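Structure, all two chains, one model.
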Amino acid sequence: EIVLTQSPGTLSLSPGERATLSCRASQTVTSTYLAWYQQKPGQAPRLLIYGASSRATGIPDRFNGSGSGTDFTLTINRLEPADLAVYYCQQYGRSPQTFGQGTKVEVK
Amino acid sequence: QVQLQESGPSLVKPSGTLSLTCAVSGGSISSSNWWSWVRQSPGKGLEWIGEIYHTGTTNYNPSLKSRATISIDKSKNQFSLNLNSVTAADTALYYCARTLGFLEWSLDYWGQGTLVTVSS
C-alpha cells in the first residue's frame, strides 16, 4: 500500500502567516488522486482539496493544494485562529486508500 | 444538504461482531457516489475500511483480512458495516462517509462518528 508521510508533525504560527504542509508518498499517486482534510477537535474530517489542487465546495481561496507524483503541498495563506486543526492528506489512486498521520497546526 | 448518521452498539465483546448502520438523509443512496466506512484510532490514525456502490459492488481494505462486510439497503436509504472476530485493536471512532463522485473517491460528506470499544 502507499504510505503517506506528512511533515512537520506540528506547525506553530501567528495569525496572518502562511502555513506550508507537506505530504510525501512512498509511490507515485495515480492521476493526482490526492485530497486534504481539516479535522478540528471533536469533529469529523472536512474535505478541503481533492485532485491535488481543486478546492471543495465552500472552501476559501486561502487554502491551496499543489503537487504531483510523490510530493504534495497544502498552503494556508493568511492564517486565522479558526484554522487550528489537524490536517490530513489522503491518496485514493491505488487501493487501499491511505491517509497520512496528520500535521497539527497551532495558531499562536 | 446530505447528512449521514452512524448508529450501533458502543461496546462489543472480543471475538464478537461489530455492526454499524449509516442512515443517509438529504440525498439518495442510489446516486453516483460510493458509500464508505473509515475509522480513527489513536494508534493507527485514519484507516479506510471499505466502500459500497448502490449496485452492491464493494471494495475493502486487505488489512482487515476479510473480516469486514459492507451492505446496502436502498429501501431504507442506509448502508451497514459488519466486522467480525473483533479484538481490542478494533476499538476506534467509526465514520461513514460519501465520495465526491463515482470516479472521485475523496470524501465530501461525513457522519459525526460513533465510538466503538471492544472489551469484555
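Chain B is about 0% helix and 50% strand.
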